[in-house]
Specification:
By secondary structure, this protein is α+β, with helices and mostly antiparallel strands. Helices cover 50% and strands 18% of the residues. The structure holds adenosine-5'-diphosphate. This is histidine kinase.
């Protein structure tokens, strides 16, 4: 590199270098804050199910084991707690990978209607337990999109699970797929559940953010679902929107790119 003798240029270079370092340090500080914050939230999220499981085990050891009925009941509950822990750890693993950009998309062309039907099938039982109806609002003409199939399945699944968790008994969740301008489709998941108070909407997609609304407290969740959704959609360079009214319902929608070779 040529040595600069011009004093002004030299000063400018030094300032630029120092500025660069400052930005580096600021970034490190933010990352450090982020890590502390993240760890704090993780241990908080894991504590409740861990103590619950421990509670059942201790009660069993304390003598409840002798009664076959109680034994079965407590073991089942402990198992539910462990299942919940597994879900949380899987979500944490996924979000960490998404946040450091480690997860690469595996794009392919697939029929998005078929994917939605798959998710419906997987969640049928869960919805039925709450008397919630899952409905499709579309013609059954295949719509091919180009995206990471597995990850979009997770997006649709997270949105549907939420609509069931935060929906009233006898409610309905409707999924629709609509053509947008320029090779895009928009997928909407609309429910007539609790809805979300306006002041919470801007923070909804932050990880660990949960709306503490009456009725939703019992709904086991880690507050990671929507932040995973947002990461996946943004990794596709697509957009996600939410509209919601407390007491009326919510609509989450996102765009996807249509496959180049769509029939019709
Ligand atoms: P989790 O469901 O694990 O709490 P999410 O990130 O999926 O986490 O959602 C964050 C919060 O947004 C939830 O705690 C809930 O209060 C609110 N929410 C999400 N989806 C809906 C919905 N369809 N209707 C009402 N509230 C919702």
């Amino acid at each position: 590199r040529a040595v600069t003798t011009d004093m002004k240029t030299l000063t400018q270079e030094i300032e630029k270098f120092a500025q660069g370092k400052k930005i580096e340090i600021d970034t490190l500080k933010i990352q450090e804050e982020y890590r502390k914050d993240f760890l704090g939230n993780v241990s908080h999220e894991l504590k409740t199910p861990l103590f619950t499981v421990q509670g059942y085990i201790l009660t069993l050891l304390d003598g409840a084991m002798n009664d076959k009925k109680i034994r079965e009941k407590y073991l089942n509950r402990a198992n539910k707690g462990v299942e919940r822990l597994i879900y949380i750890v899987k979500d944490l693993d996924l979000i960490t990978k998404l946040e450091v950009g480690e997860l690469k998309l595996e794009r392919e062309d697939f029929n998005v209607l078929e994917l939605i039907q798959n998710v419906f099938d997987l969640l049928e039982m869960k919805a039925a337990q709450k008397d919630i109806m899952l409905t499709f609002d579309m013609e059954y003409e295949p719509i091919y999109v180009n995206a990471d199939r597995e990850k979009i399945q997770q997006v649709i699944s997270n949105l549907l699970v939420n609509s069931i968790k935060y929906g009233h008994a006898n409610g309905t969740t409707e999924v629709s797929v609509e053509n947008l301008i320029k090779n895009k489709v928009i997928i909407r998941v609309t429910d007539n559940g609790y809805g979300i108070p306006e002041q919470h909407i801007p923070r909804l997609f932050e990880r660990f953010y949960r709306v503490d609304q009456s009725g939703s407290r019992n709904e086991g969740g880690s507050g990671l679902g929507l932040s995973i959704v947002k990461h996946i959609i943004e990794a596709h360079d697509e957009k996600i929107y939410v509209e919601s009214e407390e007491g009326v319902g919510s609509e989450f929608s996102f765009t996807l790119e249509k496959a180049a070779n769509n029939p019709a």
